[in-house]
Amino acid sequence: MSGVNAPSRPLDDQEKAIARHLVRDPRATDKSISDATGVPLRTVGRKRQKLEQEGLLRYWASVDLGEGGTGQYNASHLYIIKFALGVTYENLREKIRGERQIPELTDMIAESHIAEIDGKLSLLFVIEGTSDRDIVRSVHERLIPSLMKNHGAHSIQEITTLRLLSPVRVLRNYLPLINMAGSTMRRDWPEDAIYVGK
Asked: What is the DSSP secondary structure assignment for residue 105, as one 8-state letter?
């Protein structure tokens, strides 16, 4: 993405209006955004493209593989894997960039983050599986051996896990139990309740 290293900047009022509309419906056309916001059509296209190029506006597609979707996965756990002292942020990022097993673990890892806990670097994983037992087996037979291979046999200091029951808020604005209707935000959800920054 060309804008990853671009300097940070606040959004102007037109950009905020465009972003709010895209949060409501990421598939919205420039014309529908212009009609809804009053921002001229050409300005919508130009500003949307600039926001995308700067990396300030990103899109994802998510297939619901859980009970409410395809039914493939019925269980979800948050795993917190704390590394030993001496594992640095840059070193961890570089090793992750070079990992070849990431595609092989895609079926089990729904989300992952680098974190810092008690002064030590950690990886947080949301792991999905057909059951709690399936998740435990996948983590201990696939994920942990992969981490030890890539980061060192003695790199892992501690593992904590939590069972996740259902999402409440996703990406700041999406509240599946409150404001979502299928794959888009409910049309009656107030515009001023959509947060796109100050």
From this structure: G
Directed axis angle between helix 30-37 and helix 13-24, to 10°?
Answer: 120
Query: Which CATH number among 1.10.10.10, 1.20.1250.20, 3.30.300.30, 1.25.40.20 corresponds to the domain 1-61?
Result: 1.10.10.10
Interhelix angle for 30-37 vs 41-53, to 10°? Answer: 120
pLDDT digit string, tens, across residues 25-75: 999 999 999 999 999 999 999 999 999 999 999 988 888 898 888 999 999
The pLDDT value given to residue 103: 78
Per-domain residue ranges for the chain? 1-61, 75-164
Q: Please, are residues 176 and 14 in contact by the beta-carbon 8 Å criterion?
A: no
**What CATH number is given for 75-164 in this structure?**
3.30.70.100
Residue ranges, the chain, pLDDT below 50: 1-4
pTM of the predicted protein model: 0.82
Alpha helices by DSSP H, 56-125: 89-98
